Amino acid sequence: QHTRHYHKLDEKAASEYMKNVPVLAEKLGGSPDDWEIQEVGDGNMNYVYIVEGPRGSLVLKQALPYVRCVGESWAMTLERAYFEAKALRKEFELAPEYVPEVYYFDHPMAIIAMRYLEPPHIILRKGLIAGTVYPRLAEHISDFMSKTLFHTSLLALDTHRHKEASAQSYANVEMCRLSEQVIFTEPYMEAANNRWTSPQLDPDVRALREDIELKVEVAELKARFCERTQALLHGDLHTGSVMVTETSTKVIDPEFSFYGPMAFDVGAFVANMFLAFFSQDGHAGMQGARDDYKKWILQTVSDVWSLFAAKFKGEWDKSWDSPGDAYLPAVYNTPAARTLSEMRFIEDVFVDMLGFAACKMIRRIVGIAHVEDMDSIADADKRAACERKALTCAKVIMKQRRKFSSITQVIDLVRHQ
Amino acid sequence: QHTRHYHKLDEKAASEYMKNVPVLAEKLGGSPDDWEIQEVGDGNMNYVYIVEGPRGSLVLKQALPYVRCVGESWAMTLERAYFEAKALRKEFELAPEYVPEVYYFDHPMAIIAMRYLEPPHIILRKGLIAGTVYPRLAEHISDFMSKTLFHTSLLALDTHRHKEASAQSYANVEMCRLSEQVIFTEPYMEAANNRWTSPQLDPDVRALREDIELKVEVAELKARFCERTQALLHGDLHTGSVMVTETSTKVIDPEFSFYGPMAFDVGAFVANMFLAFFSQDGHAGMQGARDDYKKWILQTVSDVWSLFAAKFKGEWDKSWDSPGDAYLPAVYNTPAARTLSEMRFIEDVFVDMLGFAACKMIRRIVGIAHVEDMDSIADADKRAACERKALTCAKVIMKQRRKFSSITQVIDLVRHQ
Ligand SMILES: Nc1ncnc2c1ncn2[C@@H]1O[C@H](COP(=O)(O)OP(=O)(O)O)[C@@H](O)[C@H]1O
Ligand SMILES: Nc1ncnc2c1ncn2[C@@H]1O[C@H](COP(=O)(O)OP(=O)(O)O)[C@@H](O)[C@H]1O
Ligand SMILES: [Mg+2]
Ligand SMILES: [Mg+2]
Ligand SMILES: [Mg+2]
Ligand SMILES: [Mg+2]
Ligand SMILES: [Mg+2]
Prior knowledge:
2 domains, cytoplasm (chains A, B), binds adenosine-5'-diphosphate, homodimer, binds magnesium ion, globular, Aminoglycoside 3'-phosphotransferase, Chain: A, domain 2, 53% helix
């Protein structure tokens, strides 16, 4: 199957395709006539088919050689499917509870077949907009992040394996470049892609572009993003890349995966939770209706960070005899040295996490890709008010990020914005 | 020529070899009988032949598949010659005044033919031990560093070229691993390779291994060394990798070259100048005889840093329209933003430079490879006194490195140690 040339599938062609891939045909059972196929891709980039057969179901995801929501004018490498499949498999190896299993990958066709995350799984962002509480979310996502980030870093790998893995991930450069552009650059300049709630936020956007202190901080974070090959990142870990039920949490869509700074993944998730928080007033039927929910969101962010830090240290504590080349046991394996090493490491992730979170909040308000949490607030004044709070808060987080001594202080800032 | 298998040359075989490489035979002129060949490799790793013919001269450097000074028991990849040749060529492209031209490279034979740096060129370290002043040194070496580091970074390159170059350099992983081991790890543990002036420094070595604060700082720098693909480094820029005359400065031997943090190269040079400084009292025929020379060394370090900072900014100022993806003009090209960007960037290099310099000083006193500056002090008590000052100073530099506000403060510390 791997010598086929790329062509874009529709429902009918997808059916034909799966008929010829034994592992898929067998999983579905019956014959192509029995298969229900539905395109559900709500993302900006790719086609996603849900396929159900008499015996089983699956999801078929195919990349397009351009950005779906823009059209053929914005070309986009098909290679991202390769990196997505590779990351899904590595994440599944490290944290199987939180990742759909990959059944099949076709490189030239840019097709991934994976487990269908059946209802009631929904995209976390939609659950947050609906005001649904997910009691296991913090525990699960922190578990996913700590395991995938720790075990792909030099804390767990030797130099050979770590350098080789990061050198291989470089080839996802197109996607890295896209992130650089839309996260770290365009929000701070005039760019055709940018949009914002106008005219309400016009002065805010102007102030952002003139905020030199902020822009220089952003440049430092961009350099870390481009240069720090610390661990295998998901690369796009917002609340639209997580599917949830009350008891299950699954991370999908790592097509931006590459070796980068751990804090980028953690910051992406936190940023989108904060955006969800700031959007709640726009969704509350009446004043105060979402107050308990807002508390839950902030508690969840607090838990995500605390649990991430604790679980990451937990992985580390279990790994002092691992081949990880960063902190060799002969030098660091005493109680005091371990404690200080772990504390400093986590503090470093914390500060960068806040910086990346701030970048991610800002770009979702003034850049190309917004979040449904805000966009679904129909009243522009109401929306602008929510967005302004988020933007103001992000700027403070960015500039003060080295001064917070705990996540609680950050949460307090967000709560009282 | 590129299909030959590796075999180690001696003088006679080298002559035969060059006879069969037209570009080399022509450069030398005459016939093999007319060629004078002399092995001069004083390094730990490779064979270096100086070859003089009727028409011209050259240096032939061949790597061995093991560490020369240890023997076949310590295997070492021949691939380092490839990275050395590649780095020499890139450096020659960017800063031709300071790099010997490569005439010829034979990959399977791990042979580099390059310009012979004729007398009175000598290894800088030997000049420093002899107490010779090099009035152009600071200007030259800062020029070399600013040009090579700036133009291989994301300040000058676009993301595609930068990521590709750094991914390719990953394959010099054997040499990176060696640096990790001997610079960042073994000095802080019991290791068969370590040696120091004993018993004089025994308590100092013990204290070093118990200095948790210091070791955790070292771990952070090691992480930067392993993970930060900022620019193409020389990778071994000590005073034994620089050849000088009163008017000329040439950098040789970049076999450790890889994409790493800029500060590592600058720190390597500074560290070795500080070691030269601290060794002077061991070389002074009588008390105070080297006082002027010590002043010159410190002035040179001060100039190296100030000129590096100024020249680096100079390259940057000329490059605001370059394809460098780090600071796009549309975001940063205003006088105030440029000034703040450059200032912050240089401050960041400064702090890491001090950290790497401290690591390099420490490892040369208690690790596997010492410096002739100290080793040539025959009196062990005298030598230990010099080494202790250097070691003590390095520890302070490491721990205080975020607090110095200028190179002058660092120099004052060194002077009054
Ligand atoms: N394994 C899956 N199970 C169920 N639904 C999925 C699965 N993968 C994707 N989807 C649905 O398809 C949508 C788009 O998938 P995603 O991988 O995020 O594509 P894109 O890269 O285009 O954003 C998701 O928001 C989700 O609704
Ligand atoms: N191009 C050159 N011209 C003159 N002498 C050289 C040249 N290259 C090397 N040498 C001499 O050979 C010695 C070892 O060379 P070097 O490249 O440092 O080898 P190694 O990698 O073994 O340290 C140098 O210290 C210097 O004395
Ligand atoms: Mg998606
Ligand atoms: Mg996607
Ligand atoms: Mg370990
Ligand atoms: Mg050498
Ligand atoms: Mg060498």
